[in-house]
Design a protein that fits this description.
This protein is an alpha/beta fold. Helices cover 40% and strands 16% of the residues. It binds zinc ion.
């Protein structure tokens, strides 16, 4: 007898509907599985058979054929165990076949019949709701992330026996509930606030400018100058996430298997800080069973690269293209997949090995050592950082001064306004922020008056800029003007933008 139930495959962070077809017929006892399966999926038959036996189900030996379609999608992971088991049981008559209609199911079976969590339940339920399914049956541990999606019942199950009773109508299960208000109450407020940083006004200003145009930022300064504290404060001055953005980030975490049961919807902008020993793959994503990397986990938030020169060069090379494109493509034998990767990169570094250059009274490095240290950052990578700022050591007086510091909330209000201006300007284009402007866009969005043109020309000569460097200054000047609520880019705006660029020049062209 033939039965069919739906499940889902992950392609990047999207789910595709998969039909799990099972035929049980006469002939030599056999368990045959087809449909472009990875070895992990093929192993399902052992888990399914043992889980059934240990759930007290004895099935007469028959010829069992399992087909997962469509055949052109590669099937990976253990999430097909549960739908395969259920379709087999339906073919044997243990579950009414009509009970499987309109249901999408995923779950890994352990040998004792328990149902273990799987990755990607959030995008699966989202796809099921969009395709008009009435219900999803998912592992109990994944039910909350499924319940985030409106308009579909999500049933969490713990054992194979429970699923059988449920589908036979012998055991009712309440659909999982999700309460947005509870989540909002629990997750309010950023952990780090600029209010706690004394002094460092220029650094805070540079962070505000960078965030306002979503420019990548480099902080350079001696140890203990608060570089990483500054980086950690940055998510707190970014605008609140929209629900759509929250869902998108949560989907990435769901696919990575990192969504917490208690926090099924991510409401805070991510802050990822991979150690400098991170592999290129962990940073970019991929692997035999592909998962999003750190850059995608930082999507719509901040990727913080502390002690940047300590990272291996080839690790950075994988970042270059995605930093430009806002997504990362992973090529595989079975076709390529794409993960979103629109993160603001914040990098921090000491200016030399001992950390005190250019304070020649304290720096113990030779000029060669300093060059070597700074040379670890490649020019193509520097080209992708629009704002560079020097974080000086904090003077004792600043540490103890009773001056009230501006809070992240206050800074954020200005950032939100600058984002709003950009949203209006770029409406209907593929651009969202000034940092994404191309040379052509810069010409039309950053017109300069006569005085301003002359100033740019001077800077071009004086700093020995490349065309790329010239455009980067204009993009940052555009952001500074937006922050000031000015349509026109003035000499003041250019002067500040040039300043962020000359700091880079000071270290790398010395
Ligand atoms: Zn030094």
């Amino acid at each position: 007898m033939f039965s069919m139930i739906c499940s889902a495959a992950l392609c990047g962070i999207k789910a595709e509907i998969i039909h799990v077809e099972v035929d049980v017929g006469e002939g030599l006892p056999l368990f045959l599985m087809v449909g472009y399966l990875s070895s992990q999926v093929k192993e399902a038959q052992e888990r399914v058979k043992t889980a059934m036996k240990n759930s007290g189900l004895r099935l007469a030996p028959r010829r069992i054929t399992v087909n997962l379609s469509p055949a052109d999608i590669r099937k990976e992971g253990a999430g097909y165990d549960l739908p395969i088991a259920v379709a087999v049981l339906a073919s044997y008559g243990h579950i009414p076949r009509q009970a499987l209609q309109g249901i999408l199911m995923a779950g890994e079976l352990s040998l004792n019949g328990e149902i273990c969590p799987v990755r990607g339940v959030l995008p699966m339920v989202r796809q099921a709701a969009a395709a008009g399914f009435r219900c999803c049956i998912v592992p109990k541990k994944n039910e909350k992330e499924g319940a985030v999606i409106k308009g579909i019942r999500v049933i969490g199950v713990s054992t194979l026996q429970e699923v059988i009773s449920y589908l036979n109508g012998k055991h009712a299960i309440e659909p999982a509930a999700f309460c947005m208000e509870d989540m909002l109450a629990a997750g309010k407020g950023a952990k780090y606030d600029f209010r706690e940083i004394n002094g460092q006004e220029a650094v805070k200003r540079a962070a505000e400018v960078a965030v306002s145009g979503m420019h990548n930022l480099l902080l350079i300064g001696p140890p203990g100058s608060g570089k990483s504290m500054t980086a950690r404060c940055i998510p707190g001055i970014l605008p609140d996430l929209s629900l759509e953005e929250s869902l998108e980030i949560s989907e990435i975490y769901s696919v990575a298997g990192l969504l917490q049961e208690q926090e099924p919807l991510i409401l805070q902008r991510p802050f990822r800080s991979p150690h400098h020993t991170v592999s290129a793959q962990a940073l970019a994503g991929g692997g035999r069973y592909p998962r999003p990397g750190e850059l995608s986990l930082a999507h719509r938030g901040v990727l913080f690269l502390d002690e940047m020169p300590e990272f291996r060069r080839e690790t950075f090379e994988v970042l270059r293209q995605p930093m430009e494109e806002g997504q990362i493509q992973i090529s595989r034998v079975s076709g390529s997949i794409t993960y979103p990767a629109k993160a603001m990169v914040v990098a921090a570094m000491n200016p030399c090995k001992c950390g005190y250059y250019p304070d020649l009274g304290r720096c113990s490095c030779t000029p060669g050592e300093i060059r070597h240290y700074l040379g670890k950052i490649s020019q193509p990578l520097l080209d992708r950082i629009d704002v560079t700022i020097e974080a000086p050591e904090v003077a004792y007086g600043q540490l103890t001064s009773g001056r009230r510091n501006e809070s992240s909330e206050e800074i954020r209000k200005r950032v939100v306004k600058a984002h709003e201006i950009q949203r209006e300007r770029y409406e209907g284009t593929s651009i969202h922020f000034n940092s994404e402007l191309t040379a052509e866009g810069i010409r039309s969005c950053c017109p300069l008056g006569e005085k301003e043109s002359r100033m740019m020309e001077e800077a071009y000569e004086r700093l020995g800029l490349s065309a790329r460097g010239y455009y980067r200054i204009l993009k940052v000047a555009r952001t500074i003007a937006d922050l000031a609520g000015s349509r026109r880019i003035s000499c003041d705006h250019i002067a500040e933008a040039v300043c962020y660029r000359s700091i880079e020049k000071k270290f790398w062209d010395a």
